[in-house]
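Lay summary. Proteins are chains of building blocks that fold into shapes, and those shapes determine what they do. In this project we predict the shape from the chain. Here is one chain we studied, written as its sequence of building blocks.
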Amino acid sequence: MGFDFVEGREGLGDRPRKFGRAFAAHAFVAQGGLGRCVRNGAGHAVVVPIEQIARGAGAFIERVGILHEGGIFWILREMFHGAIFGKARWSMQETAAKVVVMTATYRNSFIGIAAYLMAVAALVAGIWWYGYGAGLAQLGKRAESDLALAANGLVGELERFRELAVLMADHPLVYAALETRNDEEAVTPVLQEIADKTGAIEIALVDASGKVLAATLGADESPLKGRAHFERALDGALGIDHLLRAGTGERIFVFAAPVFADDGPVVGAIVVSAGVEAVEVAWRAGAPVLFFTDGADMVFVASRSEMVLTSVKSGNFIDYDQRRVHGFDIWRVDGGRYLPRHALHLTQDLPVIAMRGEIMIDTAPARQLALLQAAAAGALCLAFGAFGFLATQRRRTLSEANAKLESRVKSRTAQLLEANTDLRREVAERRAAETSLKKAQADLVQAGKLSALGQMSAGISHELNQPLMAIQSFAENGVGFLERGKTEVAAQNLGRISELAHRMGRIIKNLRAFSRQEVEPFTDVDLGKVVDAMLELLEPKIAEAGIAVHWARGAQVIVRGGEVRLQQVLLNLASNAIDAMERSPQKILTIDVGRVGDKVVVSVSDTGPGIKEPEKIFDPFYSTKAVGAGEGMGLGLSISYGLVQSFGGAIRGRNLDEGGAIFTVELIPSAMEPRL
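And here is the predicted shape, written in a compact code that computers can read:
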């Protein structure tokens, strides 16, 4: 929506004087009127009188409760009305008197506002100062990092040539040339080749007198005697210096490495010269101003060409003023468009190359960040003050709303308490149901055990009755042998009686262990012992059915589970396999224990007809046996499925390609279980 102020004048008719946007000319304003040009819903320009706008604004102010007769906003509104419309309610004297009265009445308010504005100004200044310091700290860390990176790059580049001088000093041709003075021409190609490969500007061989015997750029007639780096090399140490190359004025670093004779004295030196322009080219792409000065404060290496070979302490350096701010050196620089106006200055000593690294980084980001933080804080404080002033006029409304809200909160709290009570009751009921379910599951497992024992009762009775009859027979025979004095034969009979009693005890022990209810079903279990006990319980049934058992107990396998419950699972699987092979021409029960990945797998397979519906075998009450057979209700595999899952394992059943079925039980190995 666009708008403009238009003013009517006598004689203009329907051509009002325009201010601002062009569509204001289409508005019709009554003579002497003042209005705001707006677009209506149809897109046409219309004029809304200022009086109407003012009345709407006043009504809004009255609704929010900050306008009352005699108050600040009321007096300001009347003064505005008179200034705009030329219809002042009071004379100048009356207006001045009312302003005086208003000032006296709201003096404390004005003083408070002034004090608040002064406090805001002080806060803004403090935030700016603190933010500027924090920004300088960040810039300082960045400057340290950039300076360290640049210094490391320069030192690393020069160390290559220092190491080159040391290595060349041990070259056999170098020593031979110094010793015999006959191989000087042979040394020059070697030096040239090494200089080309390493990027050195020049490599020279110098004798102890300072005479250049061989060099990549030709022998120099001027001796090096008396130069600092050469004299240090003659002293047996590595000499380093920086200078301007004669003839070209190129800035170079020179490294002089001593060449020792076999008997110890220095007979000459290898001098390697390296330039710095390549390093400077890489720096010039960056924003920070980097330069390196020597002991005389002369800039020898710099990222800005205008700073090269200037002295910080002399008049040819850039103009700058230095001051200390927040513990940092801040330079005010007057050095052209490529240098920052205000820069943070840091230094770093580089004793390896006898230089001092220096950096200037622009502080504009820190100032801008501090200004932004201060402006945001000032705006926030002013907005807070304005809203706080207005909020005082609405305290009563807020109190009433707060009372209503508290009433609703109490009502809602009561509802939540009631809901919480219902929830606690439901949780208690669920816990009771869960306890009942666990008890029912335990009873179902025990019933499964008793059902299996009932199915095996005939065979177990035979297993116990046969040893008892044999014991009776051996006892009667032993009495006869004793009466006849045959003690050795009687002793043999007593030994057989002991073996049979031990066998009966073992059978009874397995039955008692199988029938008991486990309290702690999750322990370390010897899987081989579980299989052996299961087969011993099923031995009568296996013998009666004429089953061939393939089971070879190997190394000890320890798994996590319940011994009795795991025995129950394997007994259910083996018993089902025996029943399935009732009409099979070939009856073989195979039990195998192996390792698949990080799981122990025990498999039970048979040569029966297989599984008709593999996807349903673990469903409760599912059975393939004839109704009324008296061999269970189809809960064995379902119980076994739940038991194996309680151990953290899995049980699966499938048909074999060659015929028959196989059930696999995956179990978690114990930590003490050895690798298979």
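What the prediction tells us: The chain has a mean pLDDT of 75.
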